Amino acid sequence: MGVCGSRHRGNDHPGASEDMGCLLSIIIGSIRCARGEASEAAAALEAVQLLHLAPDRDVGAVLPLLDRLCAMLTRLAGLGHGRTGPR
Hints:
The chain contains two helices and no strands. The chain is an all-alpha fold.
Protein backbone atom coordinates (compact mmCIF):
# COMPACT_ATOMS: atom_id res chain seq x y z
CA MET A 1 0.00 0.00 0.00
CA GLY A 2 1.09 3.55 -0.65
CA VAL A 3 1.27 6.32 1.90
CA CYS A 4 -2.43 7.21 1.65
CA GLY A 5 -3.72 3.72 1.04
CA SER A 6 -3.43 3.59 -2.74
CA ARG A 7 -1.57 0.75 -4.39
CA HIS A 8 1.25 1.83 -6.68
CA ARG A 9 1.89 -0.61 -9.53
CA GLY A 10 3.24 0.08 -12.97
CA ASN A 11 1.52 2.97 -14.77
CA ASP A 12 -1.30 3.46 -12.25
CA HIS A 13 0.92 5.56 -9.96
CA PRO A 14 -0.88 8.80 -9.11
CA GLY A 15 0.58 12.09 -10.26
CA ALA A 16 2.95 14.20 -8.23
CA SER A 17 0.20 16.62 -7.20
CA GLU A 18 -1.88 13.74 -5.84
CA ASP A 19 1.13 12.48 -3.86
CA MET A 20 1.78 15.98 -2.53
CA GLY A 21 -1.84 16.38 -1.42
CA CYS A 22 -1.65 13.05 0.35
CA LEU A 23 1.59 14.02 2.09
CA LEU A 24 0.14 17.39 3.10
CA SER A 25 -2.84 15.62 4.69
CA ILE A 26 -0.50 13.41 6.69
CA ILE A 27 1.56 16.39 7.85
CA ILE A 28 -1.52 18.39 8.89
CA GLY A 29 -2.84 15.36 10.76
CA SER A 30 0.46 15.04 12.59
CA ILE A 31 0.43 18.73 13.51
CA ARG A 32 -3.11 18.40 14.86
CA CYS A 33 -2.07 15.40 16.96
CA ALA A 34 0.92 17.33 18.33
CA ARG A 35 -1.39 20.23 19.20
CA GLY A 36 -3.66 17.87 21.11
CA GLU A 37 -0.73 16.42 23.01
CA ALA A 38 0.57 19.89 23.91
CA SER A 39 -2.91 20.87 25.13
CA GLU A 40 -3.09 17.74 27.29
CA ALA A 41 0.35 18.50 28.72
CA ALA A 42 -0.79 22.03 29.63
CA ALA A 43 -3.95 20.70 31.28
CA ALA A 44 -1.95 18.17 33.29
CA LEU A 45 0.49 20.86 34.35
CA GLU A 46 -2.40 23.10 35.46
CA ALA A 47 -3.67 20.19 37.58
CA VAL A 48 -0.20 19.81 39.09
CA GLN A 49 -0.28 23.52 39.92
CA LEU A 50 -3.77 23.37 41.49
CA LEU A 51 -2.80 20.38 43.62
CA HIS A 52 0.43 22.12 44.69
CA LEU A 53 2.54 19.20 43.46
CA ALA A 54 5.21 21.47 42.00
CA PRO A 55 6.43 24.98 42.76
CA ASP A 56 4.39 27.69 41.02
CA ARG A 57 7.54 29.24 39.55
CA ASP A 58 8.40 25.96 37.78
CA VAL A 59 4.90 25.51 36.40
CA GLY A 60 4.78 29.19 35.51
CA ALA A 61 7.91 28.80 33.44
CA VAL A 62 6.51 25.95 31.34
CA LEU A 63 2.87 26.96 30.80
CA PRO A 64 3.67 29.99 28.59
CA LEU A 65 5.90 27.79 26.43
CA LEU A 66 3.11 25.26 25.98
CA ASP A 67 0.73 28.11 25.16
CA ARG A 68 3.11 29.38 22.47
CA LEU A 69 3.55 25.86 21.11
CA CYS A 70 -0.22 25.36 20.88
CA ALA A 71 -0.59 28.72 19.12
CA MET A 72 2.13 27.84 16.62
CA LEU A 73 0.63 24.40 15.89
CA THR A 74 -2.85 25.91 15.58
CA ARG A 75 -1.58 28.31 12.94
CA LEU A 76 0.40 25.62 11.11
CA ALA A 77 -2.61 23.31 10.95
CA GLY A 78 -4.83 26.15 9.72
CA LEU A 79 -7.20 25.80 12.66
CA GLY A 80 -7.41 29.47 13.59
CA HIS A 81 -10.02 32.00 12.48
CA GLY A 82 -12.12 29.67 10.32
CA ARG A 83 -9.31 28.65 7.98
CA THR A 84 -9.23 25.03 6.85
CA GLY A 85 -5.57 24.65 5.97
CA PRO A 86 -2.20 26.31 5.77
CA ARG A 87 -1.61 29.06 3.20
